[in-house]
TrEMBL record:
Gene encoding the protein: mnmE
One Pfam family hit: TrmE_N
Name of the molecule in the record: tRNA modification GTPase MnmE
CDD domains hit by this protein: trmE (cd04164), TrmE_N (cd14858)
Similarity comment: Belongs to the TRAFAC class TrmE-Era-EngA-EngB-Septin-like GTPase superfamily. TrmE GTPase family.
Textual note on the cofactor: Binds 1 potassium ion per subunit.
Sequence ranges assigned to domain TrmE-type G in this UniProt record: 221-384
Residues that coordinate or bind GTP: 231-236, 250-256, 275-278
Positions contributing to K(+) binding: 231, 250, 252, 255
PANTHER family xrefs: TRNA MODIFICATION GTPASE GTPBP3, TRNA MODIFICATION GTPASE GTPBP3, MITOCHONDRIAL
Subcellular location: Cytoplasm
Names of required cofactors: K(+)
Amino acid sequence: MSHHLTDTIVALATPSGIGAIGVIRLSGPDAIRIANSVFHGKDLEQQASHTVHFGTIHNDEGRILDEVLATVFVAPRSYTGENVVEVSCHGSDYIIQELMQLFIQKGARTANPGEYTLRAFLNGQMDLSQAEAVADLIASSSKSSHAIAMQQMRGGFSDEIKKLRQELIDFASLIELELDFSEEDVEFADRSKLEALVQQIQRIIKALLDSFQLGNVLKNGVSTVIAGRPNSGKSTLLNALLNEERAIVSEIAGTTRDTIEEVLNIKGIQFRIIDTAGIRDATDTIEAIGVEKTMQKVQSSALLVYVFDVVDTQPEEVRADLEKLVHENIHVLVVANKMDLNPYTKKEHYFPENSTADYHWVPVSALNKMNIDYLKESLHEAVLSKKINLESTIVANARHYEALQKSYEDLDRVLRGLSAGITSDFVAMDIRAALHHLGEITGEISTDDLLGNIFGRFCIGK
C-alpha cells in the first residue's frame, strides 16, 4: 500500500448522518495552515497545542458556512504525531459536505480507511497491537470486549511481548558474538541458562495461547445453540431469555424451520443465541434442511443449550439426542423444560449416578419464565468457568495468536537443538525466527501488505 505521509488528510470523525455535532479532522504538516485559511477568529497558527477556539468558517465567496470550534494539536503532541485540527461544526449533512469540499480545495485530500491510526503507528505514537486495539475498541459492544480492547490499547499486551522479546535478544546477541569468534572456540552464552529462559518464555506464550479461545469469545460473543426435539420449548425459551416475543411459538411440531439468531448480553458478555429446528426425522424437504442446519450450527458452536420436555421425553431419548449433538469442544447445559407440569423431575432420573455424563442441569418452565435468571447465571458461569480476570492479558486477535504459535514452535526447535548439541549458528537461526514472529505482533517487523490488511478494517475517520 502507498503511504503519502507528506499529504494533509481530512475526514469526518463522527458517524455519517444528521446529528447535533459533526467533527471533521485534519492531520498532516499543513493541517493548521489549511484550517486557518478559512477560519475567522484567532490566528490558529499562533495558538498553543491542545487549545479550543470559537470562530466562523467562510468559503471563497466570503459566505459564512458555519460557526465552529477549532481544536488545535501541534506535532508531535497529537493522536497521529502530526499537526491536527479538529473542527466541531453543526451536524448537518450539507454543512459537513461544504466544509469537507472547502478543506480539499485548500490542499487536503480525503483520508484512506484507518489512515489516522496508520500514521500514529508509523510516527511511533503506538505499536501495531495497540493500533489494532483502536479498531476493536470502536467495535466493542459489551463490557468484556471493551475491557480487552482497553487493556491492549493501553499497552499491557505489548509490554509483555516486548519484555519476552528483549530477554531473547539479550541471549541472541551473546550467541551472535560466539559466531564472530567461531575460530577461537569460545562460548559466551550459558546453554543451561538459555534453555531455562526459553522454557520460561514458552510457559508465558502457552498461557497467552490458552487465553485465545476465551478472548475470542469475549470479543466476538459466545456462539450458543438452543437445540432439542420439536415442541420441547426451544422458541419459548429464546423468548424468555430475550424477554420479548422474538420467535413464533405454536403447538405444531416443526414450526421453526430455519435458525433464528439474536444477541443477549449477560453481565457484560455477549451471547449469540441461535434457535434451531427441532431434531427429528423430517417429514418434508424444507424441514430436513432445517434439521441439517441445526446439526451444522451445533458443530460450530461453543455452547449447547439442550432443551427437552420433562413430560413427553424419555431418559433414553435425551441420552440419544446428546450423543448425536455433543462434540469435544462444546460446553453443554441440559435444560429440563415444563417443570411446572412435572415438578418432581430430577437429574438422576435421566443420568444415573454411575453415568459418565456430567452435564450442568437447569430445571425451568420457559412459558412461566421460571428459573430463567438461574439459566442466565449458568450461561455466564459456563464462559467464565476458568475465572479469568479481564484485567489480565488475554489474546483476542487471530493474527497475534498465529504469531505466538509460530514463535512457540521456533522456541521448541531451539530446545531440541540445545538438547542435541547443535552448533550456535543453527540455534541463532531459530532464535531469530522466534524474534521475528514476536516482532510481527508489535509491528517491529512489518510489511506493506500486513499494514494494508490491518488498517483497511478501520473506518475512514480513524
